[in-house]
UniProtKB/TrEMBL annotation:
Residues 26-104 form the Inhibitor I9 domain. It comes from Beta vulgaris subsp. vulgaris. Residues 1-19 form the signal peptide. Residues 391-483 form the PA domain. Residues 143-628 form the Peptidase S8/S53 domain. The active site is at residues 152, 225, 569. This is Subtilisin-like protease SBT5.6. One of its GO terms (molecular function) is serine-type endopeptidase activity. Keywords: Hydrolase, Protease, Serine protease, Signal.
Amino acid sequence: MEILSTIFSLFLFVLPILASSSQSQVYIVYFGEHKGDKKLHEIEEYHHSYLASVKETEEEARVSMLYSYKHSINGFAATLTPTQASKLSELEEVVSVFPSHPRKHKMHTTRSWEFVGLEEGIKQQLHMHMDKSEALLTRAKYGRNVIVGVLDSGFWPESKSYGDEDMGPIPKSWKGICQEGDAFNSSHCNRKVVGARYYVKGYESYYGPLNRTVDCLSPRDKDGHGTHTSSTVGGRTVPDAAFMGSLAQGTASGGAPLVHLAIYKVCWGIPGKDKVNGNTCFEADMLAAMDDAINDGVHVLSISIGTTTPVKYHEDGISIGALHAVKKGIVVACSAGNYGPQPGTLSNPAPWVITVGASSLDRKFSAPVVLGNGLIVEGETITTYRLDNISYPLVYAGEITIPNVTRELSGQCLPNSLSSEKANGKIVFCFRGNGTRVGKGMEVKRAGGIGYILGNAKGQGEEIVADPHVLPATSVGEHEAMKIYKYIKSTKFPVAKILPAATVVGTSPAPFMASFTSRGPNVVDPTILKPDITAPGLNILAAWSGADSPSKLASDDRIVEWNIYSGTSMSCPHVAAAAALLKAIHPTWSSAAIRSSLMTTAGLENNNGTLITDAMGNPANPFQYGAGHLQPTKAADPGLVYDTSYTDYLTYLCSIGMPGFDSSFKCPKVLPKTNDLNTPSLAISKLNGSLTVTRTVTNVGHPGKTSYFASVKPPMGYRVKISPSILIFKHKGQKKSFKITVEKERDVIQGVSAQEYEFGWLSWFDGVHTVRSPMVVSSA
């Protein structure tokens, strides 16, 4: 679906029992960490007492409570008026009170795992010859005994991705449940999907009761998004998978095919909207799911959900839940969002989560256009509808729009914009922009068009999101779109034919950064570099819901087992799967150590041996890809890790003026610099003169004596000094600290604005391991 930037207006659900019902909405009241001195029922009564203090009656207080977060997260969600919320926020023991905003799914496999280097292990699982006996999947036992929790729109239990043949027993540590509901019972859980729950109270307080003809009041996924993400993490190995039986053929597999999955349905259809516009997920529901997931015993959380605008940590349900998860050693991977290429747009900016951007594969679905002048224009599609191998009249949408369509929108094939008389029997050429890509095709079909070509608009580059259109169609990049446009304008009777789609593997350059992937800098705290890493997120094949069409249009009645989808929602589960494999190999590693190992081993080059670019072919940078492109096989042996504890994160929160997340923790009298948080990256903004920061690395590589040597590629216009420049370790597990001093050069660089960020790299090398960290510096 086209990347939209619409922010929903807030509809206030009326609760007649409330004194000021017209102003009431769901708020989250957050107290921080539990002290551990109360039983579960006592915690709930404790929360009710606070709610009762601002309500007129005890009954009103109990009815208005949606959730009591009582396992790891200390807080509750309830309907409050702004005045009531304000009174609670003034209490000393309350960390924050914030509305339960909706978060929208944004477009935030058979090839992707091979592309990132896991093909050897998958081949071995299929009993094929393999030379490398120590492949990552083999060492990790394919993720066996690791439980990955997925917050999303549920799952489709009938998919082959969720079979439990040859799965090991459910880990004894698992404490979750299989919650029954519409078209779902306990038999739909098994040794693969060990638990499933759903959370809808926040949604229903906003929209009213769930329309159960649109969605199931159960963990069953009628959307497809949750099935796609969870099968990408840990779907079983399924041979002969393909989209519509012909495209992206091969063996489908999750990155960790023997992990156990725990499904937490927190996202639901938007009333009155096509599913193509995405699902919505509420803070109150997500926080309840995360509180349960932590208590249930998951080891990794995959969350392909984000906000339309960045939110401060203490008002961000995912950040709050993730901090409590990290305390328990749970790795949390989150999508960066799909609001690129604009800067400062990424979601999930907290330093304790792995924030994932989206990049491409080395695969395309070629469907060229042959113009009447003989020119062949490269295009891509995953539609399986075909035209006869003849030329048809070709027309530009801007020339056949009805009179009341504005000039700015006339070429975009928006709903009810095309003249049926002028479109009938023709191939219609449209530009991207407003509306959805598949919706534009539906408009061409409505108007009687026989085919459809979608062209990237200026600035969208050559990235193509392949779509399952409802008529013969293809999509072309910006340069190719202009060739078609100029051809139409150059001749009186333009014609074209669209060739059938074919899968092409080995394309280059790959990866490149998707234009939709959200960018840094981190506007919540510019001293924390985000995103952390990038992974495949463009045109990814994975399992799909049997209750939704591949285009997600209500008028599309096609049913598929596998669908090709794009977004940082797709890249996030790739990293979650890699984290699960690392958790299997290194069960004692902290979430920060796993995050560090993934980041410091990430790649910077494409398959041409040159640096990763954006969709326009320009050099990409850490605001797009973080530390680089996922290389999970290298992450298993990173050499050194930058470890960070829960206490370190609390100290960091003190340093940025957000204390109180844990009442048992007292902020130190002398606060460290925010830049001193021990992350495997460095971001400095508003540098005046010089700044020295400290980092600490832990040797997880060579068991004996080993030496690491520092090398630096400084950001342009800055000097960087590492002290000491040699780190000598005597044994595994030993820690060593070093200082990084960054100083602005006095000379003014021609053409470089003081407000621009510059990028560099710090690496440690021992002859075997290269431990690389990105640096981002600005003087303004």
